[in-house]
Amino acid sequence: MTVRMVVAVDGSEHAARALKWCADHAAAFDAEVVVVHALDVTYVFGFGSPLALAPPPPPYPKERIEKFRDVIARDWCKPLADAGVDFRVVVAEARPADLIRQTAKDEGAALVVCGRRGRGGVAEFILGSVSHELSHHIDVPLVIVP
What we know:
Elements: E1 3-8, H1 13-29, E2 31-39, H2 41-44, H3 62-76, H4 78-82, E3 87-93, H5 96-107, E4 111-115, H6 121-127, H7 130-137, E5 142-145
Parallel strand pairs: 1-2, 1-4, 2-3, 4-5
């Protein structure tokens, strides 16, 4: 049975540290790493809110999602590749914490890893912290990398 670690990425410095943590520790667990990135445009701009005045934007084209997946696998996941860690990338339109939780459940993850902060500033104040939400609502061990 393969042990799976789920790591959340968003291109931030904190997510890069979470990936590095996985690269450093995955071998000890003999784990495959599932790298998760949420395309969260509807949530960020409030289009999902009943108070939004504009219709929601159209979904991302599949080609664009594949380009995101390629960039994430090639550039962001370089520490995993350099360490020889088996990994794959999941990219989907969703709220980040929801996608991370659902992926962890679907994959039977033994561990979820995320950075302490992501978007920061006003966006974090208004929308909340993914790591904070996960710390209260996930059913598997969680590592929050500072």
